[in-house]
Write a structure and sequence with these properties.
The protein contains no helices and eleven strands. The protein is mainly β and about 120 residues long. Strands 2, 4, 5, 6, 9, 10 and 11 form a seven-stranded mixed β-sheet that branches. Strands 1-3-8-7 form a four-stranded antiparallel β-sheet, with no helix packed on it. Strand 5 and strand 6 (about 55-60) form a beta hairpin.
């Protein structure tokens, strides 16, 4: 079983910054892609950014130039640095990891609320 523990959400004014962290723990062989998704009220969950074990990244057009994803493989942790936040970034942010724990499976964190006030 794999657990993902997220931290770093909160309330911030427009133009501000937040850094999200997600640490994976449990019994597994390896982690491939790690990423962040978000879901705003009344909307579908959408990809924000993801990063492979080799460091290749991709992100949504809406956050390019403002958000940066990174990971520390030694700590099994993925980060999302969010700058120049906008009210439309308000959502619950979920960590997602593709993990080999005998078979490949997608695990999700519990979600962390990010609220950007105007």
């Amino acid at each position: 079983q794999v657990q993902l523990v997220e931290s770093g959400g909160g309330l911030v004014q427009a133009g501000g910054s937040l850094r999200l962290s997600c640490a994976a723990s449990g019994v597994y062989f390896s982690i491939d892609t790690m990423g962040w998704y978000r879901q705003a009220p009344g909307k579908q969950r959408e990809l924000v950014a993801r990063i492979t074990s080799g460091g290749t990244t991709n992100c949504a057009d809406s956050v390019k130039g403002r958000f940066t994803i990174s990971r520390d493989n030694a700590k099994n942790t993925v980060y999302l640095q969010m700058n120049s936040l906008k009210p439309e970034d308000t959502a619950v942010y979920y960590c997602n990891c593709n993990v080999d724990s005998g078979r490949w499976y997608d695990y999700w964190g519990q979600g962390t609320q990010v609220t950007v006030s105007s």
